[in-house]
Write a structure and sequence with these properties.
Radius of gyration: 38 Å
Helix content: 55-70%
Strand order of the largest sheet: 1-3-2
Oligomer: single chain
Number of strands: 5
Distance between the termini: 129 Å
Length: 542
């Protein structure tokens, strides 16, 4: 092979040296030729490409079509808010027996989700009698009320998931709404159903505030909306009084009756009051003048136009942005930041910022530690869950908490409120979940419950402090801890981090927590004083 390559190279050199007439060319001519012609172009290489044809099946075409038709999630255009089922993540984390105990009705069903179950037949037999009594008391005919519900049945059907409602036609569903709504209104207005016994009334009260056992509040308005004004006012008064009683709050404003999604949403508004939660937002929206709303519409139109222009400009760089986002997400720095946020603290380069981050890291664990650090507990004066505050005074601090009654209905009520806040169409403030997580961070032992009982903050009708501590631990099991009360936690942590104040408070807590230790300390000081006086006068010359 080497001899053949040398032979080919020699032949090529000879051909270059030969003239057109067969004579060899001079070497000077070759140099001139190289200088004038420059580098010779490389010979073109023919590319042989094999095209692989991949056929796209109909199934993949459907997938591609679903991506092309994907849209951002927008709020439902239905005039009545939706009534969802318990989220899947809660169902997967709950045993079947517990789910049936805390999320399903025991005596009576409202709506299509649990309608027709065998153990609820006795409740269905009571509804016609309650409907007759309520319609007679409100001076309405059952035909007129049924027609109003039937004309709005499409809106009512859209409030529920499709599968449970598909087995009912419009007439059956409208009749179900009529019977259920009349029973609810009769029960709230009278507070008692004669054919039901005491324990059944208690379970009916529980069933009315289950997430999967709700009626659209718009249906209830259709039922009592045809009554006289005096009757409507009386019904509203019954609503406010009984919901306040069931929620164990002082008052429920009629403004909270304007736009609730259902009774569970109304109960949530009553528990939150007009503090941090959605009632403030509703009041502020209703108090805005019409001129402000017109200006807001114009500003909204301008903002929409700007968003359209922004989207049009961004569409040209979608591919570049996607790759950039992927690189940032996969980078070690991004992952490290995610881990730091998950741990709840962030280490910055400067010492000041790292000190601020360390202050935000909660080091106290329960009420006993806070009490040892000089933080005392006081009732806030209301039963609203958002009425939580903290005041720091030298080496003493006062954490004010709302009054809370703990009984057998507490756990199912809070579990359904948490499930409601986890639903897509629920309010986005997570107020009830935040309160439960905050209270769970304080209650870790039966002694913590005992301290809250002694301060008239918790009223325990279960009879066992261990049971109360276990209830709060079970309710918040698996929940994401939210920082809705972050300002209160930060104030507590700042007071907790003051070491001198903590030492003084801890010394007072350890040595002066009972009147006997205080009396012993006073006696010791008095004896020392007398001893000093005696020693002074024992010196010659005094």
């Amino acid at each position: 092979m080497e001899e053949e390559q040398e032979l080919i190279m020699n032949v090529g050199e000879k051909e270059e040296e030969e003239e057109e007439g067969g004579q060899p060319r001079p070497s000077s001519w070759r140099k001139n030729c190289d200088q004038t012609e420059g580098p010779k172009p490389e010979p073109e290489i023919e590319e042989h490409r094999i095209d692989i044809i991949v056929e796209i099946s109909d199934k993949v075409k459907n997938w591609i079509g679903s991506v092309g038709n994907a849209k951002e999630r927008t709020p439902s255009q239905n005039p009545w808010p939706s009534i969802p089922k318990v989220p899947d993540q809660i169902q997967r984390g709950t045993t079947p027996s517990d789910f049936k105990k805390f999320y399903e009705p025991r005596v009576i069903s409202f709506g299509p989700y649990h309608h027709g179950k065998p153990h609820l037949h006795s409740g269905e037999n009571i509804k016609p009698l309650c409907a007759k009594e309520f319609l007679a008391a409100s001076h309405q005919s059952i035909e007129d009320v049924y027609k109003k519900i039937k004309s709005n049945i499409k809106a009512a059907r859209k409030c529920y998931d499709r599968r449970p409602t598909n087995k009912y036609d419009d007439e059956t569903l409208a009749w179900m709404m009529l019977m259920d709504g009349c029973f609810i209104l009769q029960f709230i207005c009278r507070g008692n159903i004669e054919v039901l016994r005491g324990h059944q009334l208690y379970f009916v009260q529980e069933d009315m505030f289950l997430l999967e056992n709700q009626l659209p509040f718009g249906v209830l308005k259709l039922i009592f909306g045809g009554a006289s004004l005096s009757t409507i006012d009386k019904i509203k008064q019954c609503f406010t009084a009984n919901i306040a009683r069931l929620a164990r709050v002082s008052t429920v404003s009629e403004m909270q009756l304007e736009k609730p999604a259902h009774l569970l949403d109304l109960l949530r508004s009553a528990l939150l009051g007009s503090g941090r939660g959605g009632d403030k937002k509703m009041i502020s929206k209703q108090q805005q003048p019409e001129q402000d709303s017109a200006q807001e519409q114009e500003e909204k139109q301008k903002a929409d136009e700007q968003q359209k222009e922004q989207k049009a400009a961004n569409n040209n760089n979608n591919t570049h942005d996607c790759w950039r986002m992927m690189k940032e997400f996969l980078s070690f720095q991004c992952l490290f930041q995610m881990i730091r946020r998950r741990l709840g603290r962030s280490k910055e380069t400067t010492s000041s910022s790292s000190q601020d981050d360390n202050n935000k890291w909660q080091t106290f664990r329960n009420i006993r530690e806070l009490k040892a650090a000089g933080i005392h507990f006081q009732p806030s004066g209301t039963s609203f869950l958002t009425d939580i505050s903290f005041e720091s005074h030298f080496f003493y601090g006062y954490l004010k908490l709302p009054f809370l009654l703990i009984d057998d209905s507490t756990k199912p009520m809070f579990l359904n409120l948490v499930a409601y806040e986890m639903c897509p169409d629920a309010p986005e403030d997570y107020e009830v979940t935040s309160f439960l997580c905050f209270l769970d961070s304080l209650i870790d032992h039966p002694d913590d419950v005992k301290e809250l009982r002694s301060k008239k903050i918790l009223y325990n009708s279960l009879g066992s402090d261990e049971e109360v501590a276990r209830i709060f631990n079970e309710i918040t099991d698996g929940l994401v801890y939210l920082d809705d009360f972050e300002d209160v936690k930060d104030d507590i942590q700042k007071h907790y981090d003051k070491r001198v104040n903590t030492w003084i408070a801890q010394a007072l807590h350890d040595h002066f927590s009972s009147p006997w230790t205080i009396m012993a300390f006073i006696a010791a000081v008095f004896i020392i004083f007398l001893t000093g006086v005696q020693t002074y006068f024992a010196i010659p010359g005094n």
